[in-house]
Amino acid sequence: MLDTYSQSLTTAKTVIKVANINHYFGTGTLKKQVLFNINLEIKSGEIVIMTGPSGSGKTTLLSLMGGLRSAQEGSLKILDQEILGASKNKLTKLRRQIGYIFQAHNLMTFLTAKENVRMSLELHDKYLNQDINAKAKVMLEAVGLGDKIDYYPEDLSGGQKQRIAIARALVSHPQIVLADEPTASLDKQSGRDVVELMQKLAKEQACTILLVTHDNRILDIADRIIYMEDGKLKSDGVDVVAKVN
Ligand SMILES: Nc1ncnc2c1ncn2[C@@H]1O[C@H](COP(=O)(O)OP(=O)(O)OP(=O)(O)O)[C@@H](O)[C@H]1O
């Protein structure tokens, strides 16, 4: 019998479909294949952790699934749009529907917490006539920074900065959020707080999270773990969560 998680997946919408993807860097004699025949289907609301040794291709695959680079071989559909050979313009439009959280938080240092969060709403026409200051404030309150909305990043801790990055990624209610090593620069407790917050908000918004990490302490927040080695997908499933722990 299917468990509740498996049951919910059978009805959930597919947000990313990767089929027979190969990827190469370099040209001529320096051409090197870094992804080999990757097949994956990611559903709406799933929290997927990608893990594996350094150089195994996690970031390359994450950047493809996030529309940060166009695919070279195979087929990759993000929110029903094919990105094989996609133009820069098509990728740019697609990226507005995706939230990004990086290791180094990538906040604008000359903008306050509220301005950093608001910036991601300014990219969307649908928010033009809405009170984006109020929305940014509500989101910062949701990540526990209601009393820091007018602070600049340099006056906040690493964990607080990463929480602003989470607020910025989620404020526009994207269907997909990509996170590359979001806990790498944080201590154990801050890292834990940050991923638990991402998990809570993603579940509330039915948002899919794709997270690349080396941090074994956070694997338990995943619904599914994808393990990569040498550019290949070695294992994929909920059962991997139990094995790794
Ligand atoms: N821009 C690039 N040009 C050339 N080779 C690259 C480029 N980016 C990545 N590579 C190579 O592709 C392979 C996969 O790299 P990738 O960054 O995807 O691995 P990773 O699993 O994310 O590694 P890490 O955990 O160290 O971040 C590696 O051999 C890397 O050297």
Automatic annotation (TrEMBL):
Transmembrane regions: none
Signal peptide residues on this chain, from the entry's feature table: none
A Pfam family recorded for this sequence: ABC_tran
Matches recorded under CDD domains: ABC_MJ0796_LolCDE_FtsE
InterPro entries to which the protein is assigned, alphabetical: AAA+_ATPase (IPR003593), ABC_heterocyst_DevA (IPR014324), ABC_transporter-like_ATP-bd (IPR003439), ABC_transporter-like_CS (IPR017871), MacB-like_ATP-bd (IPR017911), P-loop_NTPase (IPR027417)
Annotated ranges, domain ABC transporter: 16-244
Protein name: DevA family ABC transporter ATP-binding protein
